[in-house]
Amino acid sequence: MICPSCGEWIDEGDPICPSCGAYISDDEEYECPVCHERFEIDDYDDVCRFCGAPIKRRDEFYF
Question: What is the pLDDT of residues 7-16, one digit of tens each?
C-alpha cells in the first residue's frame, strides 16, 4: 500500500509509515479506473478526488 502522506511503499498491516511516521488508517486504497490516480477512500467517498468519476466499490451489487 502507499502512504497517503509521503507516497512511500508500506507493507500491508503496518500501522505506521517507516519513512514519515504517519499513522495508517483502515481506509481502503482505491485506484480510479478513469484517471488511474491512487488514493485512500472511506465509507463517505463516492467520487474520485482527482477527476470526479464515480467510485465503484467491490462490495456493491449492480443490477
Answer: 888 887 787 8
